[in-house]
Design a protein that fits this description.
The protein has 14 helices and no strands. The chain has 320 residues and is mainly alpha-helical. The longest helix is centred in the middle third of the chain and has 31 residues. The chain starts with a helix and ends in an 8-residue tail after the last helix.
Length: 320
């Protein structure tokens, strides 16, 4: 009975997110005709799109390397296996409206395959938070320079500050989770918590691996920002780097709110609010640039589809 209620709530949540995503797109393109967006696309975009695809692949390679570096327990597993499961995560994250997210799917599948579920989930969880902290670092470094050139509403800065503090607290709780008492009532229902606490707290003994994964997270953030720079350049726009860093970081954080499917519909609205509302760039141009950002996402998801096909045919990389 409880499972039926959970399934119903999950279904209702997915329907709500679908409505927000479709409604967001419908509203934006009601205000901004799609034909005016397409007019900004041409063959001259090709070099920038190719650079975006290269950056997208580098992102996947670094993510796989970060995951491998944080897998400090268990058997030695080939890098190609981490890459394959990273690609699988992108498939679920970008193409399917699942109730799990790509990170959850890939970490659970990986953990089940190699009998180290808690370690797999812990590594992916910690790496995701490190990625957010790297983004906040770039944001606050760029913010003073951006403020000297344009207005950034205080509400956005406050939102980013609160989100950063939450991430910092979360990292501390992860690393010292074994020191946090959990009521027996919760432990009786969520029996996996002690294993997770042990897997997370063990990183206190692996400072080098945590530091290296933090550096990987910084490289990932720089590549993500480069892709944003590239899709604006593809439509002929050159935006000040500090402003681009600040606005892109704000867009990422707001798009993470679980009100739509993978931020679709919300992302475009935030981009128009920032780049059009504050910088005065025509909305069709902003949308034409932002939509190009889906190309590398589809490229990453396509690799995940290949991995799933390989898994179905039992040709997925194994521990050897």
């Amino acid at each position: 009975m409880a499972s039926d209620k959970t399934a119903s709530k999950l279904f209702a949540k997915r329907i709500f997110q679908l409505i927000v995503s479709v409604g967001g797109f419908a509203y934006i393109f009601y205000k901004v005709p799609f034909s005016s967006v397409v007019d900004n696309w041409s063959l001259s975009m090709t070099p920038w799109i190719l650079l975006m695809l290269v950056a997208a692949n580098l992102i996947m390679l670094i993510q796989a390397n970060r995951w491998k570096g944080l897998s400090v327990q268990g058997p030695e597993i080939p890098f190609k296996t981490y890459y394959a499961y990273t690609a699988m995560g992108y498939f679920f994250n970008n193409l399917l409206p699942t109730g799990f997210g790509g990170d959850a799917v890939k970490s659970l599948a990986f953990g089940k395959k190699f009998n180290q579920t808690s370690q797999s989930i812990s590594a992916v969880l910690l790496s995701r938070i490190q990625g957010l902290l790297a983004m906040f670092l770039c944001f606050f470094i760029a913010l003073p320079f951006a403020l000297s050139k344009t207005e950034v509403p205080f509400a956005y800065t406050m939102t980013m500050t609160i989100a950063m503090l939450v991430c910092m607290v979360f990292v501390v709780l992860c690393l010292f989770s074994d020191k946090v008492p959990v009521p027996d009532v919760i432990l009786n229902k969520l029996t996996f918590i002690p294993k997770m606490q042990k897997s997370l707290s063990i990183y206190r003994q692996y400072k080098k691996q945590v530091l290296l994964s933090s550096l990987d997270s910084l490289w990932l953030q720089l590549l993500t920002l480069f892709m944003a720079y590239a899709y604006f350049r593809a439509v002929g726009l050159t935006i000040d780097i500090s402003i681009l860093v600040v606005f892109t970081s704000i867009t990422i954080v707001i798009s993470m709110l679980p009100v739509s499917l993978n931020g679709i519909g919300v992302r475009e609205g935030v981009q128009v609010a920032l780049f059009t509302g504050i910088l005065g760039i025509p909305a069709p141009v902003v949308l034409s640039a932002g939509l190009l950002g889906y190309i590398p996402l589809l490229f990453q998801a396509l690799q995940g589809a290949v991995v799933l096909l390989a898994a179905k045919n039992n040709t997925l990389p194994k521990n050897n």
